[in-house]
Structure formats: C-alpha cells, structure tokens
Specification:
The chain has 2 helices and 2 strands. The chain has 116 residues and is mainly alpha-helical. It has a two-stranded antiparallel sheet. Strand 1 (56-61) and strand 2 form a beta hairpin.
Length: 116
C-alpha cells in the first residue's frame, strides 16, 4: 500500500513538473514571437524616419494593403512598437516568475531532474 502511495505521488510530481516545463516553453515561444515582431517594427521605423512626410507608403491593416503617407503611418507604428515593448517586458517578467516558482517547487518537493 505504501508503494502505491509513493508511486502515485511520484506520478503527480512528474505531472506537475511537466506542466511547469510546458508553461515555460509556451511563454518562451510567445516571447520569441513578440521579439521578432518588435524587430520588424524597429526596422520599418528606421526605414521610414528619414523619408519625407508626404511620401507614399503602404501599410497592412487586417490583411488589407492600404495606401497612406509616411506622416500618417509613423505615429501608429511607433505606438504599436511601444505597446509591443511593454508586452515583451511583461512576458519576460512572467517567465522569470514562473521559473522562480518552479525552482521553489523543486526545492520544496526535493525534485531532482535526471534529464533535461
């Protein structure tokens, strides 16, 4: 009977560990996605900044390519880039919190990972 309890506990701990790892993996993927989008915004801003404000440019809005001027596009693009930076910062904080929580959990339950 005692063996069944320890086997059950071991299975529960393994399941919790897997959940922690999956959550961290999902956060890492979202961080990567937001980072690449932030880089794209930065590149476009660097490209558009030196151009004259009345120059024609195109912007993709909900899958539709729309003709605008640099003057119209720059403020919206800057706002989006700032928003992405905030989201990225929050995701990184969330990742670190999750990682710390996992480390505390591992110490509390004396979990040692055999293979990572």
């Amino acid at each position: 009977m005692a063996q069944q309890i320890t086997a059950k506990k071991q299975q529960d701990l393994q399941q919790q560990y897997t959940t922690y790892k999956n959550n961290l993996q999902q956060l890492a993927e979202r961080i990567g996605s937001v980072e690449s989008e932030t880089e794209e915004h930065k590149l476009v801003l660097e490209t558009l900044n030196p151009l004259p404000e009345d120059r024609k440019c195109f912007r993709m809005i909900n899958g539709v390519l729309v003709e605008r001027t640099v003057k119209d596009v720059l403020p919206a693009l800057q706002t989006n880039a700032d928003g992405l930076k905030k989201v990225l910062d929050e995701l990184v904080k969330q990742y670190k919190r999750q990682q710390e929580e996992m480390e505390k959990w591992k110490k509390k339950h004396n979990v040692q990972v055999v293979q990572q």
